[in-house]
Amino acid sequence: TMRSAWGLRVVLIAMLVLIFHLDVSPDLRIAGVAAELPLGLAIAAGLAGGAERGAYFGFFFGFAVDLFFFTPIGLRALIFGIIGWAAGHLFLDRIEESPVMSAVAIGSGTALGLTAFAGLGIALGETALLESPITRIVLIASLINAVLAVLLMWVAHWMWAVDPIGQKRFAT
């Protein structure tokens, strides 16, 4: 059915990006900083699919990413969910139709998400975050995601392409 095809696409994309993030991305550093593709995808998912899908995808995908790191469980789920939801509100203005605006939205969303992650992590006692070059990480990871915005948006559009509730996208 359409619903299972859509679910399969979402799970497939989430797994591929997660595997890339865990296995390939750490070896492709720019000035010592790895890309933050999961956060970029959560933003693109909201931009391409709206607030509700952005929030759900961000939350569950963030939770899946959380399982592989020694940071407070649910921290990425919370941040990815909120950022995906916020990005979904931007999509109402058709931002995703402009590659430049997509890049700005994904780049600034990445900066916001990483800053929130560092701030909340430190507040929750993750002292290791205090020793990391947060400013450099935020700037470079945001630029990487902004440059990859067109690819992230293409992936997100493909992911939602056979969504049975896709008609909602054009309702205001």
What would your notes on this structure say?
The protein is mostly helical. It has seven helices and no strands. The chain has helices at 2-24, 37-49, 51-66, 75-90, 99-123, 134-147, 149-160. Helix 1 packs antiparallel against helix 7 (149-160), helix 2 (37-49) packs across helix 5 (99-123) and helix 2 (37-49) packs across helix 7. The two termini are 27 Å apart. Mean pLDDT is 89; it is low at 164-172.
> What structural class results from the helix and strand content?
mainly alpha
Percentage of residues in strands: under 5%
Number of helices: 7
Number of strands: 0
**CA-based gyration radius:** 15 Å
Mean pLDDT: 89
Helix-strand blueprint:
Layout: H1 2-24, H2 37-49, H3 51-66, H4 75-90, H5 99-123, H6 134-147, H7 149-160
Helix pairs in contact: 1-7, 2-3, 2-4, 2-5, 2-7, 3-4, 4-5, 5-6
Name a few traits of the molecule:
mainly alpha, disordered C terminus
Q: What's this entry about, in short?
A:
The protein is mainly α and 172 residues long.
